Amino acid sequence: MSITVNAIVREDQGKGASRRLRKEEKVPSIVYGGGKAPLMISLNIHEITHLLENEDTFTSVLDLVVDKSKEPVVIKDIQRHPARKSISHVDFLRIDEKHTLITTTPLHFIGTEDNEALRIGNMLNQFVVSIEISCLPKDLPHGIDVDVSGLELGDHLTLTDLVLPEGVTITSLQHEDVEAHDQTVCSVTEPKLMAEVEEIEEIDSELDEEGEGEGAEDSEGAEGSEGSEGSEGSEDSKDGDAEE
Fold it and tell me: What is the DSSP letter of 57?
């Protein structure tokens, strides 16, 4: 069953206009891509909050209805209030049914109750909980199942071990050197081994902090940039609506 998101066009933009919308229990949003101009829209806060309670909303092609027009989209980005965690902005990306899209999908670890090694007290360590995939919109999965029922103590699974639905590929494994980009997804270890690893990491962290402290005098006054943080998503999404 398709998921419908209702929206209305908004003319005003900027922080002031967005604050007014939020007071009216509306969420300033934007839809872009598909070779069309970006469109500023607003959503009902209660409707979009309810829709996002369903995990499938994040991994589905949605029907975005603006006035009387409907077009297929996926959620590209969601911003939330840092304290209240309420939704403050949503980015939608238009899609073409005939062209592949790149998105992120969650990993669902199944078979834990049937795993003998876990039943006797060992730990399942999950190193990757979502992956970036490429597929046609019709092949977009709601998640990838990772069956751990047969793992024994010391066993692990990597990206290349995952069983993917037909038509779905993992983007990081599309390089020529697959081995270099393969990544451990999960492993089964004894609890004490994990405790030892955490202790070693804590010691390493303390040593790093001491090293940074010694070098701080030589680098006094130098400030590091934040890099690309906060620049995710399309340039089209920079509509000045970010909440202060």
Answer: G
pTM of the model as a whole: 0.71
CB-based contact 107:130 (threshold 8 Å):
yes
Domains 3-95 and 102-193 share a fold: no
CA angle 193, 112, 152 (to 5 degrees): 50
The class of domain 102-193 in CATH terms is mainly beta
Query: What are φ and ψ of residue 159, in 5° steps?
Result: -55, -35
Q: What residues does each domain of the chain span?
A: 3-95, 102-193
CATH 1.20.1050.10 for the 3-95 domain, yes or no: no
User: Which residue type sits at 154?
Assistant: G
pLDDT in tens, the chain (244 residues): 689 999 999 877 666 666 777 778 889 999 999 889 999 999 999 999 999 999 999 999 999 999 889 999 999 999 998 888 889 899 999 999 999 999 999 999 999 999 999 999 999 999 999 999 999 999 999 999 999 999 999 999 999 999 999 999 999 999 888 988 999 999 999 987 555 666 666 776 777 666 655 554 454 444 444 443 333 444 555 565 655 5
